[in-house]
Amino acid sequence: MKGRMQVRGLLLLLALILLAATAEAGKNKKEKAKKDGSECEDWRWGPCIPNSKDCGLGYREGTCKDESKKLKCKIPCNWKKKFGADCKYKFESWGGCSAQTGVKTRSGILKKALYNAQCEEIVYVTKPCSSKIKSKSKAKKGKGKD
Q1: Tens digit of pLDDT for each residue in 39-87?
Q2: Among the listed residues 16, 19, 66, the one whose alpha carbon sits nearest the alpha carbon of residue 42
Q3: Distance between CA 17 and CA 48 in Å, rounded?
């Protein structure tokens, strides 16, 4: 009987140690999440500013009350400069070619504004009409009839 009591006591002690270790591990995860020590939740972010030229790696500055910090960011080199890299749009298909202007037009509806960016709800883009007429693919040399 005394042996069983010791085993139960030992199991209880192990369970308490395991519980305490688990609670401490959870606490450490929360501390890592707030590694910058900021309790502020209303951050205002500026645009991504590339380190060189107009695309590639860069940074964006954020402010919240009297705190400020910088985050790394990246501007893709194929983005539409007119809209900004933080405004994401869903575009419809290109319209027909206008004989008067020589351009095609399509519109895009705002899908997402990243980092509180100020974005237009609808944007319009144009591109020159192609002067080339796409022809059906021709037989490749060395293939087909011998």
Answers
A1: 888 888 988 888 988 788 999 999 998 899 999 998 888 766 677 788 8
A2: 66
A3: 48
